[in-house]
Please model this.
Amino acid sequence: MELALEILPQVLLDGLVLGFMYALIALGYTMVYGVLEFINFAHSEIFVLGAFVGVEVLLWLQDAGHLAVLHPGFVLLLVIVAGMAISGLAAMALERVAYRPLRGSPRLVALISAIGASFFLQDGLRLFESLWRNTFYLNYPTLDVLDQTLPLASNLVVPVKSLLVIATALLSLAGLHFFVNRTRVGAAIRAVAQDPETASLMGIPVNRVIALTFFVGGAMGGLAGVLFGLHYSLVNPYSGFAPGIKAFTAAVLGGIGNIPGAMLGGMVLGLLEAFAGSYLSILTDGAFGAEYKDVFAFVVLIAILIFRPKGLLGETVREGRA
Amino acid sequence: MAAFGLLTYIAASCWLAFIFPQSVLAFLLVEASFLLLCYVPAPPKVKLFLGALVLLVLLPSLGAINGYYLEIAIQIGIYVALALGLNIVVGFVGLLNLGFVAFFAIGAYLWAIFGSPQANEFIAGGFFPLSPNWFFPFLLLSIAVGALTGALLGLPVLRLRGDYLAIVTLGFAEVVRAVFNNLDKPINFTNGPKGISPITKPPLFFKPWLEFFGWEFSDATLYPMYFYFLVLLVVFMIIIVTRRLEDSRIGRAWKAIREDEMAAAAMGVPVVRMKLLGFAVGASFASAVGVLFAAKQVFINPESFTFMESIGVLAMVILGGMGSIPGAILGAAGVTILNLQLLKGLSLWLNGLRQSGTILTLPLLGSYPLSELPVQFEPAKYERMIFGLILILMMIFRPQGILPPRRDQKR
Amino acid sequence: MNTLLQVTGLHVHYGAIEAVKGIDLSLAQGRITALLGANGAGKSTTLLTLSGLVRASEGSIDFDGVELRELAPHQIVSHGVVQVPEGREILTTLTVRENLLLGGYRRHDNIAADFKNVLEWFPRLNERLDGAAGNLSGGEQQMLAIARALMAQPRLLVLDEPSMGLAPLLVREIFKILRELNAGGLTIFLVEQNARQALKIAHHAYVMENGKLVLSAPAADMLNNSKVVEAYLGA
Model:
């Protein structure tokens, strides 16, 4: 029990980091579900793409000898902007190629196409990196700043990289909230989510708004990817699957289509996972350990869907369209 | 006339395969004879005869010369059976099951645990491995276990709307795999990621009969042949069951649910019960095939039952045409051949080129020494890309599949 | 009298079913034109085709020299043809203010003046500006739908069944506003089942039956000819 209390602050911190990451990814699922009512299964690959863009930019800076010279803040900004931009554009391209031709088809048709896109992108990344670097497991170059720590208390050491994740995520979540709720274009996104036909009768270019939604969701996913890479260092083309499913769970947990819900869901899931990872073993005397933490997300997902399918904060998805 | 042409083709391709036993191409030509059988106009009886001839005589004879052919045929058979099972759930009932491999895994582990010394870990007395004679009772048992788990999963989730159902089935399969992966403690049920081995093979009950006729074979030659016919039998039985179901009240109820769930309910179709039944039937097929798979592989671990396998089987069903039995067969055969033969062949060929130092010269682009091709580039490793492409392209250009059910063709 | 919108030989299919079977109609600048007919006659389809939500299989839609047939809905709005859809489809989860501002989405000029203007037409909305539009009453929602359309600065306002499901008093109020808008120079195209009410404010009317126009006459004549009303409008 003492041990349990002793590690609590660290567990909370880990949970927050995870939670913010899930929240960022979940936004992509929930926004796209909002406007198109379908699960963008390939969003997890958009996330991984962001992580790969991040590592490629850093490696490029390193090879060119800039990494040691440039201000680390500038480097981070560059990596984050590049990851967001390319992931956002990739998400838009994905919509154009794999989803738009299927608009109006049954929901499952688009979902199957999205699963196909997910698999295709995984191996596409692998192919690219195999030809380009002859390996598809890439390590983020170290940035000295990130490896520093702030000892806040005897039982809580805060790594700078965790702070980076939390601060960046908070900033972008706030930015997104402002964008969606306080700008004209944000209102157009909400209008399309509620009723695309009426929105088009109001003069809103529905296709462009949908593309924009993919861009914004994709950029958030890309940001999460870069942060994931900076925080955990190792990425491979398949590292998106588990975070993707968990983030989708977070989106459903908060109520699909509901943007604050996705943020809340991400937090809840991240904390839950951190607690499961650290306490399951203590609580069951070692019989079940951290290896079950991934299962946790699925159990939560299944339970939520069965008992509270509209999520914690309620869905904001239009009714009556199959 | 067409029948004669077919026969000539089959004879020629088999002859080629006999002469060039190492040639992937020759065997592909033999496999293509099934495609011809589907499309060439000929009396059904002739087709049936020719099909049986290839399946029962020619293929096994080829396999006797080159075991690789039999191995491919067995793999195809296993995937055909899985695709037929998934076809019931996805094609007939219209439920997207992304965790189909879970039922396959459950069947495989059922026999693996009791058909190997593994069960001694938690049942005292040293009864295990069970004797080969238990294989067939377990095959039957696996049908019941598969149906039961299918129904147990279905019960809570079948009321969900389609896309949520898909994700939940995916989650279920991942939970099942994680459980198999981690249930080596506190009590060692599954031996965790290390997997289970050796798994008992089915009984060679017919060996005395062969010896009676004076035919002596080593077990090593008998088993592949045995598995081949066993898989063939299972596939054949699954086809019969599926066809009977398709043309029954149940089949019509399933299709009604697929087309319009509300309307089906209004017509008095017990929607949830019928969905459950579909889930259970599909699951029982997969589970039975799992038992076969475990016995054939001798060794299994959770790695064989990943999400990719589920999607692979889905790609087969979609390629062939959802709801179409010939489609599921064609899709499974096509995808398996593509993965096991074409991509592997391409990999070997590229490796050969790499080692021989061939220089690729392209007009305008200049020349490129293939020895510099990164070793990580191996076509055989890109199954996901193939599955992905199949899914996207089929959904966009031909969602009804290559061989859609007859009803759709009329439209 | 100038013709603002000219529809020629318009055919619309839903799959194999032909919902609009070759109609010609013209809307005069500055006038109110009504399109009447029973349920399923093809009136709404005609309107949806004008707005680009449904594609015509044949024919042309000429709006002041611009062919609308191949344009996307939002482009048609940019040209000044703005529809108030049937069932007052407002965006219930957005606020009244957001609904109105989005109505002017295509415009990049200063819309603040119009915003004020529109609220003078519909003072009731003023009090509920920052509440969710879904909390408005039926009549208020219809007013919001019209107000929202006005925000787009329409040259032609198209209304699909504005009286549907509203109390008579409210219907009268809404028609009064429509007449006043018209008096200010706005061209209006109105689809109605409530024929009498529509004919009272319209200048010209068409009657549609089974996808075809069966009658075209000045509204006053139609109103006075009770046989016509009975035969075609059952009212």
DSSP finds ten helices and ten strands in chain C. Chains C and B do not touch (no CB pair under 8 Å). The first strand of chain C starts at residue 3 and ends at 14.
